[in-house]
Design a protein that fits this description.
With 188 residues, this protein is an alpha+beta fold. The protein contains 7 helices and 5 strands; from the N terminus they run αααααββααβββ. The protein has 2 domains: 91 residues; 89 residues, no CATH class. Helix 4 runs antiparallel to helix 5.
Length: 188
Amino acid sequence: MGWLVQEVRRRAADMDLALILRRMGYSSVRQEALARLDVVLACDRLGLGTTWFDFRFDGLGFAESLCQALGIDVDEQRPELESLANQCFDDRWAFQPWLLVDTGAAGRVAPLERSEARYQIGFPVGFWRLSLVEQLASVRQVIREHSGDAIKEAALGEAVQRYLYFYDDGQAIIFSPRAEIVGEYRVS
């Protein structure tokens, strides 16, 4: 999280949210605007990855207006705002890695399909930006936690045979239930 996000949060913490919205040009403070402001303040990218539009501001316009309302020079911070917006754009279109919990369940037509949410484990937005080595270290930790969690196994009702970590479209690394790499999977 960069300086801009921290500074926006610091300054907003000392102000009434309704006052901030009025400074941004909202004549009446509605619940939707307060909710949007809460989301933006909680977001490490100032809500620039959301598609929220309230007939006043798009994401970038809202962030710029928020900065102005808080006394932050928008022209000086424009490169940072554009960088955050570009990261959000890249994240939206990048392949989002995911982990398949393969139980080898009978009757599953294609065990490598993401057909049931209980067999999938997602990762945070931007996870794809980590190096593959860093991703694999995190995946191993997730597998250790998952395979050691009796509640998850009971919910699945089946023993885990393997995990497939899809790091790119049609490409996966196969892990044992003990988080050891045992192979590779590629769709041809």
